[in-house]
Every structure is written in C-alpha cells, then in structure tokens.
Amino acid sequence: MQNEMQKNMLKYLEAGLRRDGRKKDEWRRISVEKGVSANAEGSARVKIGETEVLVGVKMIVDKPYPDRPDEGTLMVGAELLPMSSPDFETGPPGIWAIEIARVVDRGIRESGALDNKALCIKAGEHVWIISIDIVTINDAGNLLDASALGTLAAIEDTRFPAFDGEAIDYKTKTDKRIKMNKHPISVTVWKIGKHLLVDPTSDEEEAAEARLTVASIEDGKLCAMQKGGEEPLDMKDIQKMVDMALENAAKIRKNL
Amino acid sequence: MVYEKRLDGRKFDELRPIEARAGIIKRADGSGYFRIGKSSAYAAVYGPRELYPRFLQNPTKGVLRCHYNMMPFSSVGGRVRPGGSRRSKEISMVTNKALLSVMELDDFTNAVIDVFIELDQTDAGTRCAGISAASIALADAGIVMKDLVSAVAIGVVDNSVVADLNYDEEAYDKGDVADIPFAVIPSTGKISLLQMDGIITKEQLNEAMELAQKKCGEINRIQRAALKDKFKAGENHAE
Amino acid sequence: MAKLLVKERQVVVPGEELAEGMEYLPGFGAYRMDDHVRAKRLGIVNISGRAIKIIPLSGRYNPKTDDAIIGKVIDITLNGWRIDTNSAYTSLLSLKDGTTEYVQKGADLTRYYKIGDYVAVTIVNVTSQKLIDVSAKGPGLGKLSEGRIVRVNASKVPRIIGKGGSMISLIKEATNCRIMVGQNGIIWISGEPKKESIAAQAIGLIEEKAHLSGLTDEISRFLKEKVK
Predict the structure, then answer these.
(1) Domain identity same for C139 and C161
(2) Which residues of chain B carry a pLDDT beneath 70?
C-alpha cells in the first residue's frame, strides 16, 4: 500500500464496498463455452467479467517415461499474449505465465482426476500426452482462476483423434473422451489490508499484498495450494482463506 | 482432370462465411476479430506508445509493428510450439507492409503502434484474415488511416481460379494448386500484399487480381459494418 | 453534381465516402481523393456549410500545449519528476514548476510527489519531437489525494465535460463529489464512497454512449435514480 489511490481502496473496503460495487465474495459474471476452436481436440473459452482466456487441448502420442511405461501424462503451458494487456510483452513466458501453468497443472494432477493408465496405448511404446495450452485474450484480473476453470472445461470437451499405431490422424476425431473422476476447482483468495476477497480486478490485484490459491475437489478436500504476493500470512489468515476458497469453489463448480 | 466442383461445394467466386467484430478486447486501444470459414484471427492495437529500445525510434514519424502468431492449438496438424518461427516472422513483415501505406504516422514521432494478431484456429488464408482483423483493430484504435485494408487469398486449383482457398483445396492432390494472397486498398484498388506459390499463367494472374478486387470489396463492407455495429448497442435507450 | 453521402452525426469509418463532387471540403479527420471526400478515422460526421469533419470516437491522447491533464509520477530525477501523460510520451515536471516552495539542492523530492502519485498539471510546452514540459502551479493543480482515478478514452472527454461544463456539473451536484477531468482521459473523483461509485458509474455511462444524443437527460435520470 503505497500511494493515495490504494489507500482509498482500503477506505472503501472498510465501508464493505469494492470499487465496482461487488461484495468481497462476489464474482463477476462467469461464462464457460466449450468447443470454441475447430482444430483443437478440446477447447473452452472462459469469461469472468471482462477477463477472457482460451484453453486448447492437443492430443500427442509419445514414448512413456521408462519408470512409468504404462502411463500417459498431462502438460500445461500458459501464454500471456501481448494482445491481452499493455503490461504483457512478446518473448518467452515470464514468471507469471509459468506460475499460472504450474498451479493449474498441479491442481489437476494432484487431484487424481485423471487416470494416467487410461492414457496408455501400448505399454513401453505409445502413450497419450494431454497437451494443454492456456492463452489470454483480455486480462482484467483473476487470470489464474479463469485458466484453471478453462482447463477443466477443455479437457471435458476433448475427443481423442484417431491413431493407427504409427501416426495421429488429426482430421478424424473419435468418440473417445478423457475420463475425469473428479473436478478440481481453483479459487484464489486475495488479501488487501485485512480484507479478503475473490475474483479481483486488475486494480485490486495490484493493491493486494498476498494471495492464496486453493484447488479443491467435490468432497471439500484440498489438492493443491500456492501462496503468492510479497507479504507473509499468519495461520488465521490461511484458515480463513481456505474456508473462503472452499465456499467459493462450490459456487464455481456449478458453471461446468 | 479439371477442377469443376469445389470440395466444399462453394461457387468458384464464393467466400466462406465471414464473421467480423470490433472492440472485443477491452484492455487494448483498439481490437478486431475476423473469421472466414474456420480461419479466425484476433487483432489488438496498442499505441501510439513509447518505443524502446531507443534505436528503434524514428524521429520523423511513428513506427508500425505487426506481430503474427498462431495459438498452440490452432493448427490442423499437431501442436504449434510457441515462440514464433521464420514463417510467422515473414508474415508479420508482409502484414506490416500491407497496412502501412494507408496509415498517417507523422504526428507520432518516436512512438510505436503495436498490432498483435493471434490465430485461434486456422484453415488456410490466415495471413489475410489477420490483415482484415488488424484493419478493424487499427480503425477502432482511432488511428488515422485512409482506408480499411481488406485481404483474401485467391487460388488456382487445377486451372480454375477460385476465391478464398481452404486447407483441403490447398492440399488438393489431383492437380496443380497455386495460392495467391492479396491485400487490397478498396478506395484506390491498389494491392498492398501479393505473394504467390504454385504455377500459374499470366492470364490466370489477371483473373485472380480481378477476383481479389471484387472479393475485397465484399470484405470491406463487412469490416465497415463490424465497426459501426460497435456503436449500435444502446442506441434504442437514448433518443 | 455535388452530393452529400452521409448524414449529420452518422458514425463513419476510414475510407468511407462522405461526399461526391468538388463542392464539399474535407475538414478534420477527412481527406479528398479525386472526386470524393472520405473519412480517415472512425468518428461522427459533423457538417458545417461545405466543410465535413469527423469527431473522433476513439484514439489515444495526443498532448497539446495548455491542456490540463492528470498524470502519474513514474520517476524522480535530479531535475524533477517524470510524469506519465497517458499518451505515447512522458513529460517532465521540473523543480521550479512542481511547487511554489523553494526546493534546495539535494532535498528529498518525495516530500512533494512520490512515485505512483497522481498530479493535476497543465502542459506548458510540446516540442516537435514531443518533449513535454508540464507545470503543477495554478488553481486546482497539484497532487491529488484520496479519491479514485477513472480512465476513459480521451476522445470522450468533451462529452463528459459537456457544453460549458454542464455534464460534469450535473454529476458534481448530484453526488457531492469533487471531480477533475484531465484532457488525457484520466479523471479524479473524490467524495463519500457510495457517491463516488455513482459518479464513476455515470462517467462510465457517458463514455459508453458518447456517440448518442439526448445524453444529458439520460444521465440526469440515472443520477436521480441512484442518489436517493
């Protein structure tokens, strides 16, 4: 909190108000649209207010890891396209893009939502790799949760392409889908002063001193976490943030 | 063999369905979207803004920079590795030249106008879709420009001149195929992008140029409508 | 035969034919090519006599001498403060133009303006190479404390101010807020939190509908509805 305008944001929060009139646990309008990119095996567009991300899945066949000859795997990349914010630049992914990709990856991987053995084509020779790419269209805050939600929707939308044992025929989509046992939802709780809120705008992200992303599954268990921001959190903060994340995950899950 | 009927049933001079929109990326100074068939492009304009490093600045006028990029999942084949290729660099360069001649940049010495073009799905004709989207975005950004540049790929498939090749036609293997992307400045009829690969006759080139003019006229009307549509919302509420 | 091809207040796009024949003259945002007057930017048609001009609907701010703008302090140098002007160019607020106080050599300049602060300034000079000097000396100028910053497209500023300041006065009176509108599209609003929000919403509404007529009545209704 350094400048006058950020002090003003606190004044608002004291009065129980966010700049755009929302409550602290209130989300902007969320929309999830599947099947938005014709050449991807699966895709989804997520909008949260003015924030918009696209997620596409390409299915790749590769050799399995020698220590796990009968398991396929997941690969997640994220690109903060320079078209989606004046603050994003061309060039290799920066640390924020890498963090988004890693946090989304862990949320899904650790939840056990995917059956890696079901991705095996021939043990020791061919397994499917689910290659997920997240790209931003417009950044108006909360890219992390939008990306996680979009990734889930894109996996659900995916149909395997045909594979004849040698090459993938990307023009032919089969009816086979990726089985998801669970639906891990990521919710990031942001801390500004002593206030906790979800679904921040860019202004709120800039003013926040800490954040905690919590991925959780249907039964309320946690499957991945990431603390971000410069300020440390005390145990009470973390307990409150986890509670808030779980409450909100239930709300968000309805959008799938 | 003669190419008598197009693979997707279109008439020889028929474009695929087009969807165009303006102002879809709020953070940008201007933005556009242009889809033709299954090729679609987002374009966002930032600027005029400061240009660094300094040696890139032009002290007599503003600089236009175009960046063409395919999203990793956009291709008909496998995943496209992020980070650009020689192909995307070249397309960025010809896109820049296609747009530059209509723009007035004298008032923005040392500054830059950045145009980011992102393809979310591709089915041939992507550089043309990108240019058409970028024109909408530049106008939406309030850039001073004499016209909206419109672009289309004309093909010669087994000696038939056709408008707006799709991927299947590009890959047609029962006869020769040539791909000729054009950008046209409709008000003057001048051509600001011309590339060609394949084997054609001079007569076919002439026919292709005529067709490009006609088709770019159609595209231009759609671009104009997209920009005007942005200001239609809310009109009924005020008197 | 001279022929007008557009109507007053119509939205036009670059390249669009505005008039045919030599009778009509291209004004701001228009140009002549052969027999036609055409638009060269996105905007609204304004016809006065034989001249057709385009009132822009978009575009970044282009700094002009004497404009009052709101800038953000982005750096502090030996000579003063570097101010972001929300345009393609930054400006310099020199020690002598930054404050009426005498600033001693080596003094702590953050006492006056810190990085991240918003400052109301006027543009004193713009060179051909776009070096810009600004001044914070004058009534209503200087550091903006408290309040919030709202950003609009600079082309919408005349509409937000209104004829003779009518629109902005309407908002100030209804919300009891202090408001300053920079020509560069940066607007500062300060007041009671709820009313500050209403003022910001009203400004957002004007920006969204700047190309339409009858806006004053609509904003007036909006404010009456919200401030109850």
Answers:
(1) no
(2) 1, 233-239
pLDDT tens digits along A92-138: 899 999 999 999 999 999 999 999 999 999 999 999 999 999 999 99
CB A4 to CB C147 under 8 A? yes
Residues of chain C contacting residue A21, judged by C-beta atoms under 8 Å apart: 197, 201
Helix (H, G, I), strand (E, B) or coil at C54: strand
Find which of B73, B81, B115 to mutate to test the A interface (most A CBs within 10 Å of its CB): B73
Tell me whether strands A42-48 and A51-62 are parallel, antiparallel or unpaired.
Answer: antiparallel
Q: Do C158 and C221 lie in a common domain? A: yes
Do both C130 and C79 map to the same domain? yes
pLDDT for residue B45: 98
Domains identified in chain B and CATH numbers: 18-229 (3.30.230.70)
Predicted complex ipTM: 0.94
Domain membership of residue C11 as a residue range: 3-56
Share of chain B above pLDDT 90, in %: 92
Query: In whole angstroms, how far apart are CA C133 and each of C82, C136, C139?
Result: 10, 10, 18
Inter-chain contacts counted by CB atoms under 8 A, chains B and C: 107
Pairing of strands C90-94, C80-84: antiparallel
- Residue C62 in any domain: the answer is no
Chain A partners of C194 at a C-beta cutoff of 8 Å? 15, 17
CB-count burial class (<10 Å; 0-12, 13-18, 19+) for B52:
exposed
Q: What is the CATH number of the domain that holds C32?
A: 2.40.50.100
- What pLDDT is attached to residue B236? 44
Confidence at residue B237, expressed as pLDDT on a 0 to 100 scale: 40
**What pTM did the predictor assign?**
0.96
Q: Is the CA virtual torsion C20, C25, C27, C29 positive or negative?
A: positive
Using an 8 Å Cβ cutoff, are A191 and A237 in contact?
Answer: yes
Nearest CA in chain B to C128: B109
All partners of chain B with 3 or more CB pairs under 8 angstroms: A, C
Q: Please compute the mean of the pLDDT values over residues C99-128 and round it to a whole number.
A: 91
User: Which residue from C17, C120, A89 is spatially nearest to B46, judged by alpha carbons?
Assistant: A89
Q: For chain A, what is the domain count? A: 1
Does C193 contact A15 at a Cβ distance shorter than 8 Å? yes
Closest residue of chain C to A9, computed from CA coordinates: C148
pLDDT at B33: 98
Q: C40, B104: Cβ pair inside 8 Å?
A: yes
Residues C130 and C162 placed together within one structural domain of the fold: no
Averaged pLDDT for residues A20-26: 92
